[in-house]
Structures are given as structure tokens and as C-alpha cells.
């Protein structure tokens, strides 16, 4: 088929001027001998939040038709920032030079930017001349203005008229969403310009007064209502949370993952992002952007946890994943505080048509012609105009087979169609995606063997083809998806998909198609984004070992260990629960403090749990009764996890009240989950292994089995707090009784057997030094003079200097159960010798047990393999075997029986040559020692202990994770709990003379050791560590 004959195979090309086709190569880097231009490839750089300095609250963002990104934020007259790359921002002035006449003052906030049929529309919140909040609207021909206010409020009657967000449905109807506490979130229909409300439409409530800051996205047949909730602006107590609900209908009902409606008194809602414990605090009031690869990003403001008292809310973005039909930030990791891959803002092929030389390098016309039109006075700047009949062109740039092609397109003059081309192989095999002005359709035409197959979907009846619209085509394997939007803000006007025939899968090139006078701008071709398909696991909870001494089942009377702050005589133990009528007052208030019931917590990581019966009904106005758990330092510094009431809402709130340093007193909450008459509440407490900061993560359940997790509050290192219960917030009109069925404290069964020579529950380090002496470095992790480094001074050094010559391996572990580690040494004479710890400043004075016939042993390590509190022995041998000797229990602190007298398990091969170190310690935090093996090929492998799930079976049956190629400089390893958090940390002696210590990451699902926390230099004389 000749080029001129293509017309006969098309669905409708009626213009005598013919059509234009421009092709972008995806398979040839140097076609026809033309060298490709310099390109920017995917994820070539990173960004770190915040992406813009300074205060920038309630952000909204759009990619203008001139190709720049524009962001707007709360503030006097609304500030406008422009960026080409989302990294460097330029102040472009303000929206309003003077306030609209109907507004009272310059208190503008919560803008939302849209592009509707050729003009930019900004919705905003303001106080009107009557002194109440109202929704305003302004329009402009460009993102920087000049802006013209509509002359009066867009909405003046309704509940909580703030936080507007525009949205256009697939039928072309415009809407505005709005609302906040306590009135809830509503949706109102607008006219075709988006600048006037439809008087025949009554606003519809789509979310309860728990929420504010709505943003709507229409995707894959569902409407996603994104919302924010809780304390947005409470300094270090800012607990803002972003939620989402989902509906098959724009007007609802919106439900969460569990099917609970968002309008309920006990409001549903699925968390997209909440405080994770890093430096990003109170992220919310979100918008969304989509990069040139198709990856979506949440756009939001947040504070810095370390400087939150300044209440500066800065501009942040993070990857927004869509997993199992729900949006979530970074697979559930939440806001980022470390470098992240940059959004793709420049395509592999990228042309705004402002440079005719660059365009000539990008595009080559095979027939017909194209021209660059200057951009002065136009909303898009320069653009490409297509001219001539039966025109075709090609671009010579390498790209992948899975791509996204995008451009702004419009038809002008006599033009009928304009669009994009994909998978073009030759004149008989290609796909065209077209906007057809005459039929008002989005068309996908698939041509194979010269035969076209056309599928269509209607564009809205109000569609204006001579105004710029964004056309996006995604090709992934045999799946092609085309989408038309005003400005790629998540509200498509039309979506069409098709399955590609085999002849076109992973074949061909992409480009532009259109007839005479069609116009195109902002063309990009990019490799399509990689979709993330699974959620990260929630951090593990500390729950496998009930501490009865810290708990109370509330049987008979209040148990021992409790104390009162302001005793409440109305609290009493009745029928197996603590019945406590709500008191008047509130701990967050300045006066009228209620009583608090407290007890001391255990040291280290732990979890508190209660089962709470608290019947406060639903739907009735009831402020602000609450009952639940508390972590209490004093009235001005505490956390509390409560089932609470607010207006008609019933909530689960996790409050933080703080007055650090005696300065400003802050009180704010984060919320999550849905309460019931009976609700289980948990607070999981973990200590950061590096900083010592205390992380408090709440959970809730309505059945005691399935749990929801909320945002984290962080308290400073060494905070001394008590734990307990609260019941307060009664008004004269209401009083409920909180019934606590139990108060339980859990702590993981911790394996403390490895390395703790001094008995302080922190792992110490034992070495054989260059002078042949055996030395002990006592752990000083908590000593201020050590600046956070665990090993600074030698605690003890042997008198003898023959350890280096006489010893091949050492390990230290508690064999007797007294909390102090014994020394095990493998001698060059074939003996295994064990020194019992004396408990004195000279811990090992004489050999207690001496085993012969160990000449075939190569390495030894010891840890509590079977969870009985006594260290077991693991060894490797010249025959390649790994052998495990379970502790007999006969070598108690006062006894003299042998700790090991028989082999328990053996792995027959794989452990002879190539091993540079083994360690046995609890790296998974379950109280059972795991096996670490370092090999000369650079592999570090963990074999997680299987004993908890398979008692009395081989504990190290399979590798749980392995990292290759990064550990090739290791000469020996050891492991013990260096920072006292209950999880073993890794110590590695390198061939370069360094001692590297890796604090256990523990919260992650991948390998727990990746970056050294502490590095010691000049350790080249040390030959063995244990």
C-alpha cells in the first residue's frame, strides 16, 4: 500500500487537504543516518522533600499548556510558583493584585487550579463581606493571569464553605467539591464554564465532618474521593492524615476497603498516608500530578518534625501507587524524607516546539510538512501546525516497547481530526488514536495487513475541539489505553482501551497524526512507569510474651502497681472489668483536669492493649467524651489513644500534648480506624536503634483479630513516661461509662544470651588483638561521653599474649542463664574451651569446661536457638557440615554440669570452604536466635529460625534473605543486641581494617542490614571478634 492509499483504509478522512502523520521511532537510534539529540532518561536524578523552600500550605498544581508546572498555595492574594523540573521554583507573583470587592480582607486559602476549555479556573476559600466563609472562583487565559474574579461568591450557602476542588466528569459536567469540620464534604454541580453553580442542583453530602480538603480522581471506572483529617496545623502535634473512599458513582456512596461509608457517624476511610515516624509530619491537603511516564504523585504540604513549632507547611510530593484498586503512598511507606527517584518531567523525545532546529532534529516528514508557530500571545506558547495532504514523518530515538505518548492537541480551521500514532510498523500495520471533531468521538484505529478496525467512545457533548486538550496513550504489552483530559488532573473526559494484535505487540514507533491545520504541543514519548503491586507489611507488633507483672485482668479489685494522678473514686472493678464513668474536663484543656490511672512500663520495646466497652451511641451530638490508653509524663506532655466523640462523629484519636522545653503548649491528634461499642486498642512502643527516640504506633480492632494501624508519634530519647488509662470529657448532658476488660502489657521474648559480658542487657565486644591479647569492650551506647558509639574503652584485657597464636575462633554467650556471657574459644590444638563468667571485673579467670576432639571445627557461634534462655552452640567443620548442640541446662550459674554433651542437628554440607564468618543471634526479634553466614563471594545470608513454627525440627532449614556481592571484604562477623532494642545487630571486621556495626532495621521486610551505623577505623590488628 502506497502512502497516498492510506486514506482509503481510514474510518473517515474527508478533507481534500488530506491528513498528517508524524512518526516517532521506538526501535532505531540512528535511522537514515541522522544522529539523535541528547536525551534525558527516566529516573536520572532524585529529589528530596520538601521540593520547594518556605511556607506553601494547601498546595494545588497544574502543568500549563506552555509546558511549565504551576503551583498555588494558601496566602495573601495567593502565591504562584513556576517550575520546569519540579525542583527549581520561580516566584511568579500573586493571583490577585487587590481583593475582590465582595471579600473581606486578604485571607485567601486552599486554592484549586483547573483548565476548562481554554481558560484556567481557580477556586478558593475566603471570608465574604458578611464575615463568613465562602467559595470564590476566578479565571485567566494563562496560569499567571491576568486573573478575573467572577465578581461574587461561587457558593455562599452550605455547610463549612472552604477547601474547594474542581472536577469534570466524563459527560463534561463540571463540579466543585468543598467542606470541612464539622459540616462534612459536599459536591455541587456547576455550569459549562465552571464559574457558576447550577441552581437546579442541590448539594450532595459525600463525606462526614471527620474530613476536609477533598480531591477527586476518576480512574478505571471508579471515583476516588481523597480527603484529609485531624490536626493540620498543631506544630509538633500535627497529625494530619490523608484518606480515600471509593464509589462507582460520582455522587456516592463512598466507602473504604471494608465497605464502611464515609458519611457515617463512625466514618469509614482508607488511609493513604499518615505520620510514619520520620521527619515528615502532618502531611495532607493533597492534590495530584502525573508525570510523563504515567506515574501519579501525591502533592501535599507537611511540616518538619524537628522544626514543627514554626508551623511552616512546605510543598512535598511522593509516588502514589494504585494497589488492588486503591491509592496509597509508596506502597504504604508514607511520606518520604530521603532522596527519591524524580518524576519524569522530560520525555525520551520531548518537544514544546519553541525551537525549530530542535523540532527538525526530532521530526522528519516523509510526506507533507509541519511548521513551528511562534507563541507570543497564546496560552501554550509555541506549537506545531500540521499542513499538507498525506504527510508522514519519523524521529530516530531509541525507546522501550512499553511507552506513554502524550501531547496537547486541538483542531483549528477546517481540521477535523488530530491525535497520536503508536506501534507504527509500516503503512499496513499501525495504530492511530484520534479526536474527531465531526463525530465528537475518541477513536482508536488498529490497522493490520492494511485492514482497519475502529473502536470509538463518545466525547462530551460540550467538548470544544478547538481548545487544547491533553491526549495520553499508554502501551503496555498488548494493552493500549487512550485518555482525553482538560489538563491531566485525574478527571478524564473519555477513556478507551483496546487489545493489540500480535503483529503490533512490542513493535513499531510512535508519533502524531492529524489533517490540515491540526495543532499539537508539548509532545513527549517516555518509557511507561513501573507499577508497584504489593503493599509493604506493617511494622511488627510487640505481642508474643505477656508480662503479667505489668498487666491487670481486673478481677476482684484493682491490681498491684497502679497509682493515681487526681484520684477518681467513681472508678471501680466490677464483674471482671474496670468500670469508669467519664469525668468532666479534658487533659488537653488548660484547667479542670481529670484523673489518670497509671503504672510503670517495662524497659525497652513493649506494647499495651486494652479491650474497651464504650457505648456512646451514634449520630447524636456529643462533645467530647473519650476513654482509652495513655502514655503520660505530665499533664502537658502525654499521648492518649481514645474512642472519642466530636459533634455527631465517633472517632479513634491518638492525641499528642507536648510542651517541650517549657515553651508553647501544643495539642493535636491523628485519627484512624473505626470504633464500635467494643473496641480493642493497642499502642506499640519501639525505640529507634540509632537515635534512641521512642516511637508510639496505635492500632485498633473491632473483633480482636483484624487490626487497623494509625500514624506514629515520636517522643525524645530517654523520655520517662508511665502508661495507663483515661476516661473523661463528660458534659452535664452526657455521661458514659468506660468498661476496660483488661490492661495487658506485652514484650517480645528477647534473646539476651549473645555477647553480654557485663550483664547490663547490651551486647559487648570481645576481640583478639594484634598483640595476642583477648580484650573486652564494654558497651557504652547510653553514655553521653561516647557520642552514641557503643565501643570506646576496653573493659578488660587478658594478661596472656598467646590468644592470637593459640585460637582460631571465639564467641561469647550466656550458657548458664545468669545474664552474663561465657567465653567459648576454639584452639589450634583441637580443644573447645569454655570460661564461665565470674560476674566480676575479671570475668573469665579459668577454664570451666574443656572439650577435646574438636580439631575438625572451623568456626563457632552461640545463641539461644530453642528459646529456653540458654545459649546453644553452632559450629562449622572441615567436612562441610553445620552442627548444632543444644544446651543441656546442666551448667547453671551454681552448677558444674556440661553445657553440651551431644549433637542435636547437623546440616551435612555447604559450610566448609568460602565462609568468612558465622553468627548466631536473634535478628528477627522473636526471641529465637537466627543464623548469619558471610561468604567470600560477597554474600551475606540469614537463615531465620524456624523453631517457633516448627519446634524440635532443624531450625535453620532455608535462607530467609540473601544479599550478594556486597560483603566480599569481611574477615569475621559477630552479632548481639548492641543498642538494647531486643534485635541483634551485626558487627563485621573487614580486610581493610575497619569494624563496621549495622543496627538492625527490623521494621523492613527486606534484609535488616544495609548501611553501617557505626564505623571504627584502624582495627587492622584485630584478627577475631566474638
Task: State the main characteristics.
single chain; 1026 residues; mainly beta; Jelly Rolls; Tachylectin-2, Chain A; 4 domains; 14-stranded mixed beta sheet; eight-stranded mixed beta sheet; 2 helices; 72 strands; 1% helix; 43% strand; globular; disordered N terminus
Topology:
Layout: E1 19-24, E2 46-47, E3 60-63, E4 69-73, E5 79-83, E6 89-94, E7 109-116, E8 119-127, E9 133-140, E10 148-149, E11 165-168, E12 174-180, E13 184-189, E14 204-207, E15 211-219, E16 222-229, E17 241-247, E18 270-273, E19 280-290, E20 296-304, E21 314-323, E22 326-329, E23 340-341, E24 349-351, H1 356-362, E25 364-373, E26 383-395, E27 403-411, E28 417-426, E29 429-436, E30 441-448, E31 451-458, E32 469-476, E33 479-485, E34 494-499, E35 509-515, E36 518-527, E37 563-565, E38 572-574, E39 577-581, E40 583-584, E41 596-599, E42 606-613, E43 626-634, E44 637-646, E45 649-658, E46 666-671, E47 678-687, E48 694-701, E49 708-709, E50 713-715, E51 722-730, E52 737-746, E53 765-768, E54 774-777, E55 794-797, H2 803-806, E56 807-813, E57 822-827, E58 832-835, E59 847-851, E60 857-863, E61 872-877, E62 882-885, E63 905-907, E64 915-921, E65 930-935, E66 940-943, E67 961-963, E68 970-976, E69 985-990, E70 995-998, E71 1014-1016, E72 1024-1025
